[in-house]
Amino acid sequence: MTLLDALREHLDVTAPKKGCDHGQCGSCTVLVDGRRLLSCLTFAVAFDGADVTTAAGLAGDGELHPMAQAFQDEDAFQCGYCTPGQICSAVGMLDEHKSGAPSYVTDELEGSPELTDDEIRERMSGNLCRCAAYPNIVNAIGRAAQQ
User: Fold this and answer.
1) Which of 40, 107, 127, 136 is the least crowded, having the fewest Cβ atoms under 10 Å away?
2) Residue 144 has what pLDDT?
């Protein structure tokens, strides 16, 4: 059983969505031990004891996670189907960026790369939005990164 099916069908955790079920859309993105992961491509048993966090699990004390708040403030969703995966991917992506991990478009490979719009687009390229809210998603991630 995949991690996505275990979450949705057996634990009633519905934030990650089954979009393509082939790891091509990113709607099922969750954080496992702080790293982003496509839950439709991984077996649940492989993560026994791991810390699995969905977009719903990012919030705390009744407050939205700063990334979720930025998505709301920047109107970075329309239908909302991809939003939980986008938010988890964005949180994981910012952690990767902060650690200095380069992407395909990173100019300077030493130190922490500048978080440009191109850098955000490249790092989020595995998450599709069928409503095409991409400009607002990039703005939301940039806003959250500044906080």
Assistant:
1) 107
2) 97
